[in-house]
Amino acid sequence: MLGTLKLQQRLRSLADRWQMTRAELLFSVFLVFSFVSGIQAHVMPSVYPLTQSITDALLLVVCAPLLWLSYARGRDQRLWIWAVITYACTFFIEVAGVATGAIFGAYAYGPTMWIQWLEVPLIIAVNWTLLIMAMSQLATRFTQSPWLLALLTGVFIMIYDYFIEPVAIRLDYWTWAAVDIPLQNYLAWGVIAMVLSYPLHRLQIRYQNPALLVYAAAQLVFFVGLQILL
Question: Could you tell me the pTM of the whole model?
Answer without folding.
Answer: 0.91
